[in-house]
Specification:
Layout lengths: L1 E2 L6 E2 L1 H11 L8 E8 L5 E8 L7 E5 L2 E5 L1 H7 L3 E6 L4 E6 L5 E2 L10 H4 L3
Parallel strand pairs: 1-5, 2-7, 3-6
Antiparallel strand pairs: 3-4, 5-6, 7-8, 8-9
Length: 122
Amino acid sequence: MTKSHDIAMSITPSADKFIRRMMRFSAGTEAGFRLKVRPGGCSGLAVEFDIADHPAANEIVWKHAEISLFLDAASGLLLNGSVVDFIEDRSATGFVVTSPSGTATACAPSSTLLPVDALIRR
């Protein structure tokens, strides 16, 4: 496990609120929010997340307030300089990552921006 201070990433209040809500399901003092970002997806980056009891041996621990975010090296590189936001409204739900170039990207199986109509079973 590596403690990292070299990732310049910021979390919006909306993303902070979602992460804290998810962390309520964690157990243990080493628990954290695992965030994986990969190139791909419908908008350039695929975002996955999970709650983990402890970081994996190869993960970076990035602290946000009193919450630990667990990032693999590739995610750390992709998130460096980015703003992580979470959209939750009537038309879409999911993480949105704005890169240093100012482009917002989102979309993945576990963080997909979906229109509300797509969630309604008929």
